[in-house]
C-alpha cells in the first residue's frame, strides 16, 4: 500500500513540465461529454449545465492567463495568442450568461467546445487532452466552491486504477505513506506497521531518490505510486537518502522490498503491548481494567472493521472483569463503508431506522434506508461513550448521530465535519480510444446524488441532515457534552499516541528508545475529551449494581501511573 497524504498533485503540470503527459493520457471528448451530462442531470443540487459550463470557462480563462505555463506550452508566452484565446473564452462566457438555463445544454456545450478547440489551435495551441481535462476540472471545481461539494469529480483514465484499488481495499505495495517535501522531493511520512518497508528499516523523513534505479527528481506523487506499487510478490528497489545526525553527512541506502498485500488495520486499542510473530499488534483493550472499561479507536470503516472490532470485544469479554463500559473513539475518522457503519450502530440499537437518504427533491429514498435487526444487537445495554471532533466525517457521523438519536450512547467532544452526502460512481468510456492493453479507455465520474439523514432524536420531529450545505449554521452531529481541545493539546496528544504505538521492527534501526506512557494522555491533561469520557463511564458504573464489586477491585489496583 502506498497512501498519498495530500492531494497537491492534481494539477496537470508538475514542475518538470513533462508529467502532464501522464495526467491527460487517453482523455477524449466523448468521456467529457458523458461526465458533464451525468453531473448536470443527477447532482443532488439539481445544478443543470449552466453552472458547470461557467466553471469550465473560468478554468480555461485561467489556463490562458497563466504565463508560467509557457515553459511547457510555449505559445502561451505570445501576448497576441493569449489575447485571441481569452477573447474567445470571454465571448462564450457572455453567451452563456445570456442563455436561459434550459438552453445551456448538450448542444450548446458541443458547439462551444468545437469553437474553442479551433481557436486554441490557432492561438495558444495547448494539446487537446489538456483542454478537455481543464474543461472537466473547472466544472467539478465550481461544485466544490459554490455547492460545498468537493466529492463530485471526474476520475480520468490515469487515476482510475488507483481509485479502484483504494475503493476495493486491494492495495499491493511496500507499505509507506509519502508526500512532497518543500523541495518537492518524495518523502516518506510513515512506514506502515508490519509492512515490507517497516521490516527492512525504512524510516519517516527518508527521501526516495530512485525507484529501481530511476531517479525520482521531478516526479509527481502519482508517478511515484505507479512505480512503487505493482503485482504482489515482485521486487522493487527503493534508494533513499537519510538525513545525517548531529552534523554527519546524509546516508544513501538501497532497500530491496517485495510487494505484498498490506492490511489496513482500522481497529486500535488503548496500549500496543507488542507485535506477534506475524507482526500483528497485540493490544491492551482496557483503559481501566479494574472497572472493566474498554477503549477502541476506530480510524476508518472498511470491510474488516466490524469483524476486527468483534474480535477485540470478544477478548475483552473473556477477561477477568468483563466489559462494563466502552469508549468508542471516532475522532479524525473520515468514514468509509455505509454497511460497516450500519453494523456498528446495530450492535447497540435493536429496532428502528439507523440511517436514511434524501434525494435532490428532499424526498426519502426507500431503497437506501437501513433498519436495525434485533438479532444483531449484541451489545445492547452496554454503556458506550462516543468521542467525535471536527475530523469525524461520513460513516463516523452516521454512527455517532444514530446512536445519539436512539439514546444508545453519550457523544462527547466537538461538532463533526458535516459530510453526509452519497456519491455514485459510473464508468465513462470511449470505444474509439484504446489504452496500452488495447482495451477501450475508461474514466469514472463520481456524482453526489443524495444526502444521508439520521433519525430524529429526543425533542426532534424530523430526520436530521448531517451534510453541511452552503450558508448552513447547523450541521453534522452535535455532542451531548462539548469539550474543546487547544491546538497544543491536540498536537501533543497526537504525538504521544503515535510514539506510544510505534514499535521498531527493522534491522537497520538502533536500539529502540523507550516508548512514552499512554497514561500521560490522562494524567497530564493532554486529552480532556478522553479523560471526561472515562470519568463519565466510571461514575455510571460505580452507580450501578456492579459498583460495589468495581470499587473493591479499584481499592486493590495500582495507581494509574503504574498501570
Strand and helix map with partners:
Elements: E1 2-4, H1 20-24, H2 29-42, H3 49-65, H4 79-98, H5 106-122, H6 128-147, E2 153-155, H7 157-168, E3 172-173, E4 176-180, E5 186-191, H8 196-200, E6 207-211, E7 214-215, H9 221-228, E8 235-242, E9 251-258, E10 260-261, E11 267-268, E12 271-275, E13 281-284, E14 286-288, E15 293-298, H10 305-317, E16 325-329, H11 338-348, E17 353-358, E18 370-371, E19 384-388, H12 395-405, E20 410-413, E21 421-434, E22 440-454, E23 464-465, E24 481-482, H13 487-500, H14 520-523, H15 528-542, H16 547-555
Parallel strand pairs: 1-4, 15-16, 16-19, 19-20, 20-24
Antiparallel strand pairs: 2-22, 3-10, 4-5, 5-6, 6-7, 6-8, 8-9, 11-15, 12-13, 14-15, 17-18, 17-22, 21-22, 22-23
List its traits.
563 residues, Pdz3 Domain, 2-enoyl-CoA Hydratase, Chain A, domain 1, seven-stranded mixed beta sheet, 35% helix, disordered N terminus, disordered C terminus
Can you walk me through this structure?
The chain is globular. The longest helix has 20 residues, at 79-98. The chain is of the alpha+beta class. It is built from 16 helices and 24 strands. Helices cover 35% and strands 21% of the residues. Strands 1, 4, 5, 6, 7, 8 and 9 form a seven-stranded mixed beta sheet that branches. Strands 11, 14, 15, 16, 19, 20 and 24 form a seven-stranded mixed beta sheet that branches. Strands 2, 17, 18, 21, 22 and 23 form a six-stranded antiparallel beta sheet that branches. The chain folds into three domains: 27-148, no CATH class; 164-261, PDZ domain (Pdz3 Domain); 267-489, 2-enoyl-CoA Hydratase, Chain A, domain 1 (Alpha-Beta Complex).
Amino acid at each position: 500500500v502506498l497512501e498519498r497524504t495530500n492531494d497537491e498533485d492534481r494539477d496537470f503540470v508538475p514542475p518538470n513540465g513533462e508529467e502532464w503527459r501522464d495526467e491527460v493520457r487517453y482523455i477524449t471528448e466523448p468521456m467529457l461529454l458523458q461526465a458533464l451530462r451525468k453531473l448536470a442531470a443527477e447532482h443532488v443540487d439539481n445544478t443543470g449545465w449552466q453552472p458547470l459550463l461557467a466553471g469550465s470557462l473560468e478554468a480555461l480563462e485561467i489556463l490562458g492567463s497563466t504565463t508560467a505555463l509557457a515553459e511547457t506550452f510555449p505559445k502561451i508566452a505570445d501576448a497576441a495568442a493569449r489575447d485571441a484565446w481569452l477573447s474567445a473564452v470571454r465571448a462564450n462566457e457572455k453567451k452563456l450568461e445570456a442563455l436561459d438555463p434550459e438552453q445551456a445544454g448538450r448542444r450548446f456545450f458541443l458547439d462551444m467546445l468545437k469553437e474553442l478547440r479551433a481557436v486554441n489551435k490557432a492561438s495558444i495551441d495547448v494539446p487537446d487532452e489538456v483542454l478537455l481535462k481543464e474543461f472537466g476540472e473547472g466544472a467539478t471545481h465550481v461544485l466544490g466552491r459554490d455547492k460545498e461539494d468537493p466529492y463530485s469529480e471526474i476520475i480520468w483514465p490515469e487515476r482510475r486504477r488507483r481509485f479502484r484499488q483504494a475503493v476495493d481495499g486491494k492495495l499491493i505495495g511496500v507499505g509507506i505513506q509519502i508526500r512532497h517535501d518543500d523541495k518537492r522531493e518524495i518523502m516518506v511520512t510513515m512506514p506502515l506497521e508490519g509492512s515490507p518497508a517497516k521490516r527492512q528499516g525504512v524510516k519517516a523523513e527518508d527521501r526516495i531518490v530512485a525507484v529501481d534505479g530511476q531517479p525520482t527528481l521531478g516526479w509527481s506523487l502519482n508517478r511515484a505510486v505507479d512505480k512503487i506499487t505493482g503485482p504482489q510478490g515482485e521486487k522493487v528497489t527503493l534508494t533513499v537518502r537519510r538525513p545525517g545526525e548531529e552534523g554527519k553527512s546524509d546516508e544513501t541506502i538501497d532497500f530491496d522490498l517485495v510487494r505484498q498485500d498490506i492490511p489496513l488495520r482500522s481497529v486500535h486499542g488503548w496500549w500496543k503491548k507488542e507485535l506477534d510473530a506475524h507482526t500483528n499488534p497485540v493490544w491492551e483493550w482496557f483503559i481501566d481494567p479494574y472497572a472493566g472499561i474498554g477503549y477502541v479507536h476506530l480510524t476508518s470503516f472498511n470491510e474488516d472493521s466490524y469483524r476486527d472490532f468483534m474480535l477485540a470485544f470478544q477478548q475483552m469479554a473473556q477477561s477477568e472483569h468483563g466489559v462494563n463500559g466502552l469508549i468508542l473513539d471516532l475522532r479524525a475518522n473520515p468514514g468509509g463503508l455505509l454497511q460497516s457503519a450500519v453494523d456498528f450502530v446495530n450492535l447497540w440499537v435493536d429496532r428502528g431506522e439507523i440511517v436514511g437518504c434524501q434525494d435532490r427533491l428532499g424526498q426519502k429514498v426507500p431503497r437506501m434506508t437501513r433498519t436495525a435487526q434485533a438479532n444483531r444487537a449484541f451489545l445492547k445495554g452496554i454503556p458506550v461513550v462516543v468521542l467525535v471532533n471536527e475530523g469525524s466525517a461520513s460513516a463516523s457521523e452516521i454512527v455517532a448521530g444514530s446512536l445519539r438519536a436512539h439514546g444508545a450512547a453519550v457523544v462527547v467532544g466537538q461538532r463533526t465535519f458535516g459530510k453526509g452526502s452519497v456519491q455514485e460512481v459510473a464508468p465513462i468510456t470511449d470505444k474509439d480510444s484504446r489504452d496500452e492493453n488495447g482495451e477501450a479507455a475508461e474514466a469514472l465520474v463520481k456524482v453526489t446524488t443524495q444526502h444521508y439523514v439520521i433519525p430524529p432524536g429526543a425533542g426532534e420531529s424530523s430526520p436530521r441532515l448531517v451534510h453541511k450545505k452552503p450558508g448552513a449554521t447547523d450541521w453534522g452531529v452535535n455532542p451531548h457534552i462539548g469539550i474543546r481541545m487547544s491546538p497544543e493539546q491536540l498536537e501533543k496528544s497526537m504525538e504521544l499516541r503515535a510514539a506510544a504505538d510505534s514499535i521498531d521492527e527493522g534491522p537497520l534501526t538502533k536500539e529502540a528508545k523507550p516508548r512514552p506512557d499512554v497514561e500521560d494522555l490522562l494524567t497530564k491533561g493532554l486529552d480532556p475529551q478522553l479523560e471526561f469520557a472515562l470519568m463519565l463511564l466510571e461514575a455510571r458504573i460505580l452507580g450501578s449494581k456492579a459498583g460495589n464489586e468495581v470499587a473493591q477491585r479499584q481499592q486493590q489496583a495500582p495507581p494509574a501511573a503504574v498501570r
